[in-house]
Amino acid sequence: MKKDTLTAQANLLTAFQDADPMGVIFHGNYFRYFEEARRRMMEKIDYGYKAMQDSGYLWPIIETKVRYVKPLHFDQKIKITATLVEYENRLRIDYLIIDTNTGLRLTKGQTTQVAVSIHDQQMCFVSPRLFIDKLEAYFHAQ
């Protein structure tokens, strides 16, 4: 992994309540799995949900993409990796879900988020300096 990369992983066991009657995980639940890895990634730079709010910005998702390569099933061990691939003007995060036991690639995804000022609800066209500073400090410490 190159020095200026921010990634995080989450290992999960898919839950019964996330599956349809045939034991296949409902497609909408994949975003919850992505979110768990994204949350862990942002906490690495001390910019979790509370820190975002305290900094005066919200980061709504404005675009998502998912490629369902193979279905997830109930009681399946999976590893979700989130990788920050763009951050200067928006956050673009790539996701990969693999089967923990076999290493098979199951799902690829991507989300795009933008900073929105809590004060005036205006979208920012450049990521806030505070976020960039946290990211650069993390990269420098690596």
Describe what is shown at a glance.
With 142 residues, the chain is of the alpha+beta class. It has 3 helices and 7 strands, in the order E-H-H-E-E-E-E-E-E-H.
Secondary structure: elements and pairs:
Blueprint (H helix, E strand, L loop, with lengths): L5 E8 L16 H15 L4 H7 L1 E2 L2 E8 L8 E10 L4 E9 L5 E9 L2 E2 L11 H13 L1
Antiparallel strand pairs: 1-4, 2-7, 3-6, 4-5, 5-6
Strand content: 25-35%
Average of pLDDT = 95
Largest sheet data: 5 strands, antiparallel
Which fold does the CATH topology refer to?
A: Thiol Ester Dehydrase, Chain A
Write out the CATH superfamily name. Answer: Hotdog Thioesterase
CATH hierarchy: architecture: Roll
Order of helices and strands: EHHEEEEEEH
Integer tally of domains: 1
Unreliable spans are none
Q: Count all strands and give the number.
A: 7
Count of individual helical segments: 3
* CATH first level: Alpha Beta
Q: What's the alpha carbon Rg, rounded to whole Å?
A: 16 Å
Content-based structural category: alpha+beta
Anisotropy-based shape: globular
- Strand order of the biggest β-sheet: 1-4-5-6-3
Distance between the termini: 11 Å
Helical percent range?
Answer: 10-25%
